[in-house]
Task: inverse folding
């Protein structure tokens, strides 16, 4: 791939500066690739290309059915390169290859096709009678030039949930992948080029935080779609506020798994492990607070510890690996610092802890770690750790569990585990989050909207609501004759 170039205006062009991003393997700590980094002039060029493509190009004026056809063509090309995409993601962020195939690549591919299905039945135009005798015509039109900024943890999934609905709506896009994960985005640029989308409709700029800041504040951008930390999201919202630029934010989480007293311990442990520790716990909707009834706290804790102890930690390129390294040394240090903080605050390590996992002498690894004897006021229960660390908190009754679950700055996801689905749905209705699962972690179903409340952001991705986010609704009244 042309690692030394940027994809702007439908062509691969040299960057304006000699700056490079070094991609380093989280497993071997060795360099993987050096990628061109966008400078201020490249940001300007990309926004201008997107602006021209929107203001005078064919894409926003193309029939929605033709846009669907073009993106189905892209999806077909994507399907042919899934193995290559998975290997790149494993190399750059350390995601276990089995998880990369299943979730990092297959899921985005499914989302591409699902959005195309949604677009085929979307009410682009609608007529309704008006109160005063006028005919009312509703037109749903593209919002304009979109800046999409994504983090490194689920790079293709987070790109696709922004890029595909924006394109189906008729928008043009400037995409900035995270500096830790530019390789998969560059492969996607190749596929977009091969699919024959008009020049300037998609522009892809690997870059640092300065490039992101320039993009979100650029006057040529109509909407910003951002996924990342809550702190960064606040800065993005502030940058957009001055120009009344539209913005959607998918931010952090500290989700609770409420285990009711009738739940099966083994099923809960297996489900929570999958929902919490995939991608080494580096997922925003991970269930990291495990709320268990006092009467069965030991049973649930032991079952979860046994599941965590059974996990295979190691080389992400090995298909047997279930937990790989964290993305960067700074992330490893952050997680280990939280583990030490948990002990200092009085929580007990049931399994895991600091130190390298057995059999590993390099790489940015952290042992899957489980705490108990914790309360909801501790840092490990309140702050997003973004690693393989879970905290068990006991509660007295269901009302207490609901109170603890809601006692959080975040509101992204959550779950309840019970033998009675109706009981589970009743609890789900009491939890203030954007998404929720009953007897499962929240599944990223392409037809279900995803997003948070409180410090987890606003706006929705996936589902019809994900397409709505890139639409302006226009009403036209025609006087009665």
Result:
């Amino acid at each position: 791939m042309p690692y030394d170039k940027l994809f702007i205006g439908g062509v691969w062009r040299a960057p304006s500066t000699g700056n490079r991003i070094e991609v380093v393997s989280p497993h071997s700590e060795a360099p993987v690739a050096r990628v061109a980094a966008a400078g201020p002039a490249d940001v300007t060029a990309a926004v201008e290309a997107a602006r021209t493509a929107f203001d005078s190009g064919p894409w926003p004026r193309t029939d929605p059915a033709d846009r669907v056809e073009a993106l189905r063509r892209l999806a077909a090309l994507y399907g042919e390169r899934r193995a290559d995409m998975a290997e790149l993601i494993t190399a750059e962020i350390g995601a276990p290859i089995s998880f990369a195939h299943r979730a990092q690549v297959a899921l985005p591919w499914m989302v591409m096709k699902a959005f195309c299905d949604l677009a085929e039945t979307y009410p682009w135009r609608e007529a309704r009678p008006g109160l005063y005798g006028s005919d009312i015509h509703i037109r749903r039109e593209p919002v304009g030039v979109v800046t999409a900024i994504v983090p490194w943890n689920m790079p293709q999934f987070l790109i696709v949930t922004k890029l595909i609905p924006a394109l189906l709506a008729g928008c043009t896009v400037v995409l900035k992948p995270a500096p830790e994960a530019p390789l998969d985005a560059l492969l996607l640029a190749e596929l977009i080029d091969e699919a024959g989308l008009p020049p300037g409709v998609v522009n892809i700029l690997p870059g640092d935080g300065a490039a992101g800041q320039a993009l979100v504040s650029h006057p040529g951008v109509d909407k910003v779609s951002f996924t990342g930390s809550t702190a960064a999201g606040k800065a993005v919202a502030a940058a957009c506020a001055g120009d009344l630029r539209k913005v959607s934010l998918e931010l952090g989480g500290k989700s609770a798994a409420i285990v009711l007293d009738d739940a099966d311990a083994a099923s809960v442990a297996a489900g929570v492990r999958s929902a919490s520790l995939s991608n080494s716990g580096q997922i925003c909707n991970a269930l990291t607070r495990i709320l268990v009834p006092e009467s069965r706290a030991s049973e649930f804790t032991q079952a979860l510890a046994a599941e965590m102890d059974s996990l295979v930690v190691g080389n992400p390129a090995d298909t047997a690996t279930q937990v790989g390294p964290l993305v960067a040394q700074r992330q490893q240090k952050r997680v280990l610092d939280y583990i030490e903080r948990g002990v200092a605050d009085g929580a007990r390590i049931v399994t895991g802890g600091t130190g390298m996992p057995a059999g590993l002498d390099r790489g940015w690894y952290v042992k899957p770690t489980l705490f108990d004897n914790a309360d909801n006021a501790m840092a490990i229960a309140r702050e997003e750790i973004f690693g393989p660390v879970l905290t068990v908190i006991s509660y007295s009754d269901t009302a207490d569990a609901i109170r603890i679950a809601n006692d959080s700055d975040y509101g992204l996801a959550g779950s309840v585990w019970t033998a009675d689905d109706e009981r589970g749905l009743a609890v789900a209705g009491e939890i203030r989050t954007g998404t929720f699962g009953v007897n499962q972690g929240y599944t990223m179903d392409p037809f279900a909207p995803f997003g948070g409340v409180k410090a987890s952001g606003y706006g929705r991705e996936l589902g019809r609501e994900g397409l709505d986010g890139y639409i302006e609704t226009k009403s036209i009244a025609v006087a009665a004759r």
Summary: The radius of gyration is 23 Å. The chain has a mean pLDDT of 97.
